[in-house]
Write a structure and sequence with these properties.
single chain, 362 residues, alpha/beta, UDP-N-acetylmuramoyl-L-alanine:D-glutamate ligase, 9-stranded mixed β-sheet, 11 helices
Length: 362
């Protein structure tokens, strides 16, 4: 199966270690590329899938370097549009430690993709050799033009009978392009119509709350407390609002602190009406995987989505096995600096099968 993802890729700049920006500037920052949809394409390619990435990049050396980095990870970039307008978006990440959370500072206004609009991309050509389109809720938050491009992509996919997925990825600080409209209200006017036609809808509990106005009983976001059993109801409500959905998935994360997280996932099979959780104990109850110490948590949800796409629709695994693959892919992203997954399918499958000893492989 050939996957196409669409969105914005940025240059990420981070202080070394767990330093703050105020500690590190003026001084040295570590650079890499990242962005939800590009992260998903990289994760798909890392697991042996065929992945292409569609975006608008500025002409010049920064755009060249970005394309080279994607190509080095096995992502096809032949449909990327190069523009004389705008720039490469930036984001700054302070990696948290212990009780101090990570912090993101965006610098994306005026990026080449945010200045684009329908007609700037040849969707028909891009989708011609694609079997699946993956979108996220981040790109439509950038500008009216980016939202219209995302809507156009979803419509073109439906017309071509190409299934698509959406990672809801609600980002409150990005939904500012319509004056006088609050972030949640703007997101709710744009994302649900796109999600209604998606075959796979994924995200986390907060995404569903903000985008669809849904709630989860037994959840306290401020303290990172969740009741896994409540997620089936949340998935059922989401599926009722997204009639095209065959599956609804949520990553399940508890964050006791920034250095230690509990990680897992839930996949709801809409037709079967069954919720699958991973990891589980011998008694079948949800027992999340402890990740400590965290090297870098950004990109975990994107790898989780890539694992579901590959497992469900390319490898044709049973839902429980596809979920195990997705959770393992997301867990391993925590162990690499940067946004991208560098583990192989073999390594991911080993973790999905319960191999967590950390012994040296010789």
């Amino acid at each position: 199966m050939k996957f196409l993802t669409f969105g914005e890729i940025m240059l990420r700049l981070s202080p070394p270690g767990a330093s703050s920006l105020s500690q590190s500037l003026p001084g040295t920052l570590e650079a890499c590329f990242g962005g939800s949809e590009a992260n998903t394409a990289v994760a798909l390619a890392a697991m042996g899938g065929e992945a292409s990435f569609l975006t608008v990049l500025p002409k010049g050396p920064l755009g060249d370097a970005c394309l080279a980095a994607l190509a080095a990870r096995g992502v096809k970039t032949g449909r990327v549009v190069r523009s004389a307008r705008g720039r490469l978006g930036l984001y700054f990440l302070e990696k948290g430690a212990g009780p101090r959370p990570s912090r993101v500072v965006y610098d994306r206004e005026g990026s080449s993709l945010s200045l684009a609009s329908p007609g700037d991309l040849d969707w028909d050509s891009a989708l011609e050799k694609a079997d699946w389109l993956h979108l996220s809720g981040i790109t439509p938050a950038l500008s009216r033009g980016a939202a219209e491009l995302t809507e156009e992509g979803a419509r073109k996919a439906r017309e071509a009978e190409i299934p698509y997925s959406i990672d809801l990825n609600y980002r409150s600080r990005l939904w500012t392009w319509k004056e006088g409209v609050k972030a949640e209200a703007l997101a709710r006017s744009v994302l649900p119509p796109i999600a209604r036609g998606a075959s796979l809808v994924l995200g986390n509990e907060e995404d569903a709350l903000r985008v669809f106005g849904l709630t989860v009983k037994g959840l306290d976001l401020s303290r990172g407390i969740l009741d896994p059993g409540a997620y089936k109801g949340l998935a059922e409500e989401t599926a009722s609002l997204c009639p095209g959905a065959k599956y609804v998935a949520f990553s399940l994360r508890r964050s006791p602190d920034a250095s230690r997280n509990l990680w897992g996932g839930m996949l709801f099979d809409v037709e079967a009406g069954k919720a699958h959780y991973h990891p589980t104990g011998e008694d079948g109850t949800f027992r999340p995987l402890e990740i400590s110490p965290i090297v870098d948590r950004v990109g975990a949800g994107d790898a989780f989505g890539a694992g579901l796409l590959l497992g469900l629709f390319h490898l044709r695994l049973l839902p429980a096995r596809a979920l195990a693959l997705a959770v393992a892919a997301g867990a391993l992203v925590h162990t690499f600096p940067g946004d991208w997954l560098y583990a192989s399918l073999e390594e991911i499958q080993a973790l999905a099968g319960g191999e967590t000893s950390g012994r040296i492989r010789r």
